[in-house]
UniProtKB/TrEMBL annotation:
Sections of the chain in a coiled coil: none
Organism listed in the record: Nocardia acididurans
Superkingdom to which the source organism belongs: Bacteria
Gene3D superfamilies in the record: FAD/NAD(P)-binding domain
Lineage: Bacteria, Bacillati, Actinomycetota, Actinomycetes, Mycobacteriales
A family per Pfam: Pyr_redox_3
Signal peptide: none
Protein name as annotated: NAD(P)/FAD-dependent oxidoreductase
Length: 521
């Protein structure tokens, strides 16, 4: 798309990319701030994000729902402590409708490239249909798990049965009474295995690394529902839990560890946890061979823990088999293990992970191009994941991330994306007050912030890179970094997002002459 000789007003003041929990939070907060010229794009055919995409059997949340909802819109009517995916999707749609966001959604719209226009001070968003949408500001509400990806196993395209993926589940295929193989035992696979084991003729579970799977009592909430209606009570419970996390977050910043002390302590913690888990496995799984295969060789904090009370008992069923050797390849009829054994299947489930927002190699060169040709993917690949306050990067003006590097400061995903939205809305408000058309975080402020966070998080890196270095985990990216926690205090992080000083950003405005062609806004 060529640039016109006269600058024009962008199509929208703000474009939010992603209509999941983050995009909905951003939309609600933009409206509250009086910003109404925005659109929320999503590549799917409806808003909801994870809870719209993921509809596989048994899907539900692993976090107690009292902590897994918007802080500005608590719902006292949840039926159970761990609601289903459909219930969570309905909740997010209700919130979007209440805050008048339906008119702002633009679905079936995928952004494939973002390019900053240096002259017109706007983003040119290249869409999958070949069109270009322009925006003064961009808020990226893309979640942590970006796109499902298959393990690079040969022959998958030759398999003549049905292939399912957790993030693209086709509910039109009836798996009941079928021979099913599932590759992977991550969080989604744990829920799927527990749900379909009683329904299929045979279920073969190909496992690379056994998960830590804890019990999850999904109790009914109606006995305490009157308490959930008490104004402020749920908020008080949440803040109380966050107060404990706040103390730990602040103390880590001042902790001066020694590897001679911390590594042995971490090893003792892992040994103790494995002793307890082995006893739990003994109580839950009767088959000795399955018990041995389900016993993790790593610590419980190395990978994302799972919680499901029906997963482990599934391996007591005669129709469920655990295979702990690697998958070698696929054939027309099924899956072949490393020893050459072929397992025939009518359906194969590829639960083998996602592209991750924390992995620099999962960002494509040329996908996000900022000022003077600054390539965000190239920067992160060379220097590691980093952003000021987890939201903005020098060289990438007018663009904010709701869940950027080092953003996990609290318990709940909603709290994380709300904090990112607070930062973005505060920043846009500051620019508007100054009549600025471009704002960019100062490099010295960004670098100082990242250095402080990196030093703090590095104190726990030995747990991943020394004690549990033998385990593949997305908590440790290709740089050997752990770019997840935002340390320094929960309440400090929340306050900073809403009140950071204006001078952490630099501002500029398109010259008046170049704006002569703007239409009335």
């Amino acid at each position: 798309m060529s640039v016109s000789s006269t600058s024009t007003r962008p199509d929208h003041e703000v474009v939010v990319i992603g209509a999941g929990p983050g995009g909905i939070a951003a939309g609600a907060k933009l409206k509250k701030a009086g910003i109404t010229d925005f659109v929320i794009l999503d590549r799917s055919d409806a808003p909801g994000g994870t809870w719209q995409h993921y509809t596989y059997p048994g899907i539900s949340v692993d976090t107690p729902v009292l902590f897994y909802q918007y802080t500005f819109e608590p719902d006292p009517n949840w039926p159970r402590l761990f609601p289903s995916g459909a219930e969570l999707q309905a909740y997010h749609l209700r919130v979007a409708r209440k805050y008048g966001l339906d008119a702002h959604f633009r679905v079936n719209t995928e952004v494939v490239r973002e390019v900053w226009d240096d002259r017109e001070h706007c983003w040119r968003l290249h869409l999958a249909d070949g069109t270009v949408l322009t925006a003064r500001f961009v808020i990226s509400g893309i979640g942590a798990f970006v796109t499902p990806k298959d393990a690079p196993l040969p022959g998958l395209d030759t398999f003549e049965g049905f292939i399912q993926r957790p993030g693209r589940w086709d509910n039109s295929f009836d798996h009941r009474g079928k021979k099913v193989a599932i590759v992977g035992t991550g969080a989604s696979a744990v829920q799927i295995i527990a749900a379909i084991a009683p329904e299929v003729q045979r279920l073969t579970v190909f496992q690379r690394t056994p998960p830590w799977c804890l019990p999850r009592p999904n109790v009914l909430l109606w006995p305490i529902r009157p308490l959930l209606y008490v104004p402020g009570l749920v908020t008080m419970v949440r803040r109380g839990a966050l107060s404990v996390l706040d103390i730990a977050s602040r103390r880590i910043m001042h902790w001066q560890p020694s590897d001679q002390v911390t590594v042995p302590a971490m090893q003792r913690f892992d040994r103790g946890a494995r002793i307890l888990y082995r006893a739990y496995l003994f109580a839950m799984v009767r088959n000795r061979q399955a018990r041995r295969g389900l016993m993790p060789s790593y610590g419980p904090l190395t990978k994302r823990p799972t919680a499901n009370s029906r997963f482990l008992p599934s391996f007591n069923r005669d129709n469920v088999e655990l295979v702990t050797e690697a998958v070698d390849h696929f054939t027309e009829r099924g899956v072949v293990s490393a020893s050459g054994r072929e397992v025939e299947a009518d359906m194969v489930i590829m639960a083998t992970g996602h592209e991750m927002y924390s992995e620099p190699m999962d960002y494509r060169i040329g996908q996000i191009v900022g000022r003077d040709g600054f390539d965000l993917a190239a920067f992160w690949r060379e220097h590691g994941m980093q952003a000021y306050d987890s939201c903005s990067v020098p060289g990438v003006p007018n663009r904010f991330m709701l869940s950027g590097p080092y953003s996990w400061y609290a318990i709940d995903w909603h709290e994380i994306v709300e904090r990112g939205a607070d930062h973005a809305v505060h920043a846009i408000t500051l620019a508007t007050q100054r009549k600025a058309t471009m704002m960019e975080v100062r490099k010295d402020v960004h670098d100082a912030f990242h250095a402080e966070q990196y030093r703090a998080v590095s104190k726990v890196l030995p747990y991943f890179n020394t004690v549990n270095k033998h385990v593949n985990t997305y908590y440790r990216n290709s740089h050997g970094d752990f770019p997840f926690p935002l340390l320094g205090g929960v309440f400090n992080a929340e306050h900073r997002a809403r009140n950071f000083p204006a001078d952490v950003y630099e501002y500029s405005t398109v010259p008046v002459g170049e704006l002569a062609g703007e239409r009335a806004g």
